[in-house]
Amino acid sequence: MQIILGQKKKLKLKIVKMKKILSVALMFAAFALVGCKKKDDNKLKIANTRITLTSGATETIVVKPSADGCLFTPENELIAYVNPNGVVTGVTIGVTYITVTNSAKGFSEKVEVTVNPVHDLFRQPRLVFGSTIAQVKEYETRTIDAEDLDWIGYKGENPNIVGLIYQFDIISPGLDMVTVVTPKSTFSATLDFIEERFVYLGYDEANKVLLFISNDLSIGVIMDHPSAKELPILMTNYIALDPSDFASAASRTITPALSARVKRAMERAQEIRNK
Length: 275
Fold this sequence. Notes:
Elements: H1 2-42, E1 45-46, E2 50-54, E3 58-60, E4 63-64, E5 71-74, E6 80-82, E7 87-90, E8 94-102, E9 107-116, H2 133-139, E10 144-148, E11 151-155, E12 163-169, E13 174-183, H3 187-195, E14 199-204, E15 209-213, E16 219-224, E17 233-240, H4 256-274
């Protein structure tokens, strides 16, 4: 009997001991869960990893729980730029990325930014310089108005565009310049159309034209100034640019060489249009 009572007593002690161990284990587990939760709560997350804008529109990158200590770095400021507070502004049509980093928290993530057009006056011409005549014809859906060995003229597809001319260099074969002819009455709308797709470079006083550049600095847009001529049309000329066209890559100052090219381009386009 005493043996049985002794065994029961030992069993009770073991049960009490196991309960204590279990209580301590549960307590540590609870602390661990709370600690994990606090750690997760402090982990940075971006609520809007994809942003869609139009030129001039803004949207703020939302970092949770807080953007304190975050650095916002744009990939291409000619498409979209961002201020120190994470406010993104659309510049020209395209897709780019903004990297959000917080070195103190070991955080880094990219936000995709897409800038869409508002003004769609006409279909954008093929602006791949060096293209062959066959490649241009394959791209174009407009009706051919006239053509020669070194140029093709197309009729406009709607009242916003009178027509366009693709010019080719015979010596070094390939697309050399594209001229889009629009009614001068649509000058303001055409300017908006261009500014959504190109960045303003400056005004060439010598040739009375407005100049723009593309994001990769490979295309120049030469736009007739409305006061330059009394014609009822507006001629916008797209030409390939070269680094030598700029006195300084940083300031993008127009050189005399570029002004001369602008003048030749305008004269050639005018000659073809008169044909």
